Amino acid sequence: MKIVIAPDSFKESLTAKQVCQAIETGFRRVWPDAEYIQIPVADGGEGTVQSLIDATQGELIELIVTGPLNTPVEAFYGRLGGDNHHAAVIEMAAASGLHHVKPEERDPKLTSSVGTGELILHALDQGITKLILGLGGSATNDGGMGMLTALGVRFFDDSNQEIVGNGLGLTKIQKIDVSHLDARLTDCEIIIACDVDNPLCGEHGATATFGKQKGATAEDTQLLDQALNHYADLIEQQLGRSVKESKGAGAAGGLGAAFLGFTNATLKPGIDIVLETLNIHQHLSNAHLVITGEGRIDWQSAHGKTPVGVSKVAKLYGLPVIALAGCLGDNYQEVYDYGIDAVFAAIPRPLDLPTALSEAEINMTNLAENVARMWVVTN
User: Fold this and answer.
1) Is 179 exposed, middle or buried (0-12, 13-18, 19+ CB in 10 A)?
2) What class of enzyme is it (predicted)?
3) Nearest-CA neighbor of 289 among 322, 323, 254, 263?
């Protein structure tokens, strides 16, 4: 019997690899001689770097970069292993994320994505020719100006003075100079993991949708939205690319627009990118059972999350799919419409959150054993 185990991480308790190991341990109590294939998965958000380097035996690269408020922060990216050794995966939040800014200091006029550009630059210096970037969790609303500055783009105001790449700088742009944009980006395959379809501007744009959580006031929201609108006009006028209405252009404070306007990047759903990179198809073709899961399964799991992404691929091979979770939330039954055959929660009794997190591994192991025993009874 061949069992493919392909879960996401359980936030604050287990990495995706640890979830895989716990499930296999529980299953082996019932099926000690089965073949187990562990595929740690992520959906393009937090945990994607760890998932892909675990699955490919890659390498985590840690370095100091410029944080959102222009102070040094510890950041990281992953270089993949095996046949993907030429590829790197970057979570922009590692350098430019909201967690790097104290709540009382959050101000999208001041924050910059320059650190994300520094991660990309470092990866290019290591010979990377394929970049996978996750855009969630940003502290910035600079349209990617900071990132682009790190990569060689220069921005000027109406007095031909060079501008700092942050939200306030965004309001002053009159001229864009791409003559020094790192030439290596031209030959680099860039794939953006983007699970939001917000345009750059307007009521559903970057600032209106995400600005408040980054510290934007009502006045800031209007100012920055107007600035992004002007920015998009300049990109179209000076670079010949229309990004204002592009789906995903508003991701990460307009970072999506920067990639679409200045590079050859393509945007894809995060889970599709991850599963393609992990080449999950080769493991499913002769499998008998697929196990997936995430920390909490609810109605949101049906929209671009790991369990449904895995189940969609598994169903191409007619395989049964069981999802294991730390807990179940509202309307979790929606996942049944997307190929998942059964869902189980690991919490065995009423628990407070700290206890549930500390017991996650043993509870997941025990749940996996019980699922295997039920499978034996019903098959």
Assistant:
1) exposed
2) transferase
3) 322
State the Cα–Cα distance between residues 198 and 249, nearest whole angstrom: 7
Mapped onto helix, strand or coil, the DSSP state of residue 130 is strand
Fold of the domain spanning 48-270: Glycerate kinase, domain 2 (3.90.1510)
Give 275: exposed, middle or buried? Use CB within 10 Å, 0-12, 13-18, 19+: buried
243 neighbors 50 (Cβ within 8 angstroms) = no
2-39+283-378 CATH fold: Rossmann fold (3.40.50)
> How confident is the model over 298-340, as pLDDT tens digits?
988 887 789 999 999 999 999 999 999 999 999 999 999 999 9
Give the pLDDT confidence of 39-94 residue by residue, as tens digits: 998 877 778 898 889 888 999 999 999 999 999 999 999 999 988 899 999 999 99
* Residue 337 exposure: Cα atoms within 13 Å on the Cβ side: 10
Torsion region of 137: left, alpha or beta (phi above 0 gives left; psi -120 to 50 gives alpha)? left
